[in-house]
Amino acid sequence: MIGERIVSHLKLVSSNTEADHEVSLLAHSAESKSAQGQLALPYHDAFSVLLLDVRRLNFGRFVDVLNSTRPNWIIDVRVTPRMDLLAGNRQHALKIFSSHNAEYVDLFGKLGLHSYQSAEANPALWSKTIGEIVLNSRRPSGPFIVLFDDDKQFEFAKKIVPHSFGSIFQKPVFVSYTD
To answer: What is the pTM of this model?
Structure first.
């Protein structure tokens, strides 16, 4: 088209041309409709970590996050991992994780933690355990989704996880989170 230029570092917010119709349809998925139809930029790589507060999610939003992130690992750092918040029940949640080819780890269950007050509940300590699990697996990298339901854990993890995961994997780690 005359006068139209495509710049690769810009995001498509809306489109009215027939040629862009298919792209526009992708931007308007059932759960992630927005007034502008903004497309998500795929920035997740093997050393991306997404910290999610599950109290701020519903099923549709969680599936959107799984689809856009395509995690290799879903790490649950909740004392009581209530799957009904994410997918109705535990069986359905595990089925969704499996369909997305993501390994689910109930980390606090694996560590036998029943309280956020325990020393092992410190993100600096449990991130080392995640590193051991991941590095000794058939999938030695992410992307990772880490599930939270505690404000203090979440805030502390935002500060600790970038450095901790970077040290474990010996690579720069990109950490994003929901607020």
So the answer is: 0.72
